[in-house]
Amino acid sequence: MGKKLMIAYDIQSSDSQKTSTQKLIAALCEERFPQALLIDGPKGIGKKKLAMQIMQALMCTHPEKRPCGNCFGCKLALTPGASENWLIPLTTEETNKKTAIEISSKSKAETRESITVSYIEKIFQNPYDINYLASGAIINVELIRSLNARFSLKENAVRCVIIPEAEKMNIQAANAFLKTLEEVPKNTYFILTTISRDLLLATIRSRCSAIRLEHLENDELKKEFFNATQKEISPDVLGFALGSLGRALFFDELEETLTPVALNMITDSFQKNFSNIILKLQDTFLKSQKDSAGLETILIFLDVLNFILTDITRYQTGVNLRMPIVSSKLPKEILEQMTPPLIQNALLKVQDTAKKIADKITSPQIALAALAIRLFDGER
Ligand SMILES: [Zn+2]
């Protein structure tokens, strides 16, 4: 018997993420890849893209170079229709759809699998998309049960399941998944991605090998943004993105709509022109408050407010503005007269509003109107 050939693994990543990917490549080469991997890092930086490359590398059967792109395993990993490779968070309504086994094979009705495939297709189109799921999507225990059911069949080929946005697992699902993790079937790999490992059950965390994926550096982001859109990134989008291509792409689409309203909100609230700004907020956000795009848009809007308010402090202390174009459009009196306590208070109120909206404690419309009125109340 000759010496076993070393397999070369190729996983692409930007330079600032190289440290993490090198560790994974080493684990692949040494055949000690963890059966449960957790990739943790900010939204829109490429966690799913990395997970997809790992899945392909694990499923590839080429004797020397993986992923090869041609073998059955590679092709399966590259097929959005292979819904068994993914566990996608769904809304209750989506989860309650009949499964493919429950309907006749001739039926064209939507099934849980066909819905899952439509989300996987979105991920394949743009793995950086920070807004591809329906609002209220979660991983509930039913989804974990059908995941486990798939493993009852004995099979020798490598199986890999990507669980994106794993923080969306509710407590029952997490407990059920824990049992799966306690006895991961042979040749089976789970790759979880999450915006924060702290949002997962500690017992699940402790059963996964975790790696942190860093955001992109500005130069890398400029390049990636150009590759994705064939245009230069604007200074404000770059400043807003915080090294996340997903944030950059999402904000780029909304910049023209959101920044004038954010500017107005600060100016009108400061000058107590409340009816003006409340009307404007209604115009901008009324239609969109129900769907998920609307909710995510409102949260991005609050983030824009946050950045402009912080820019006022930066202006006053002579630091480079993060959103130089929009922030320098603020009236001089605001840039110069706004006091640090007033800015601090406003920032806290913006954060508080974002949390209430994200947690669905209040309707976004009411929360935004209340914020406009309270933004600069108190001592001036
Ligand atoms: Zn292959």
What does this entry look like structurally?
- With 380 residues, the chain is α/β, with parallel strands linked by helices.
- The protein has two domains: 8-212, P-loop containing nucleotide triphosphate hydrolases (Rossmann fold), CATH 3.40.50.300; 220-374, Zinc Finger, Delta Prime, domain 3 (Up-down Bundle), CATH 1.20.272.
- Helices cover 52% and strands 7% of the residues.
- The protein has 17 helices and six strands.
- It has helices at residues 18-29, 47-59, 72-77, 92-95, 112-125, 141-150, 171-182, 202-206, 218-229, 235-241, 245-270, 274-285, 292-317, 324-327, 332-337, 340-358, 364-374, and strands at residues 8-9, 36-40, 65-66, 159-163, 188-194, 209-212.
- The strands form two sheets. Strands 4-5-2-6 form a four-stranded parallel beta sheet, with helices on one face. The protein has a two-stranded parallel sheet with strand order 1-3.
- Helix 7 (171-182) links the parallel strand 4 and strand 5 (188-194).
- Helix 11 (245-270) runs antiparallel to helix 12 (274-285).
- The protein is globular and about 70 Å long.
- The mean pLDDT is 92.
- The chain binds zinc ion.
- The site of zinc ion (ZN) has 8 residues, from helix 3.
- The site of zinc ion has 8 residues, from helix 3.
Q: What is the topology?
A:
Elements: E1 8-9, H1 18-29, E2 36-40, H2 47-59, E3 65-66, H3 72-77, H4 92-95, H5 112-125, H6 141-150, E4 159-163, H7 171-182, E5 188-194, H8 202-206, E6 209-212, H9 218-229, H10 235-241, H11 245-270, H12 274-285, H13 292-317, H14 324-327, H15 332-337, H16 340-358, H17 364-374
Parallel strand pairs: 1-3, 2-5, 2-6, 4-5
Helix pairs in contact: 6-7, 10-11, 11-12, 11-13, 12-17, 13-16, 16-17
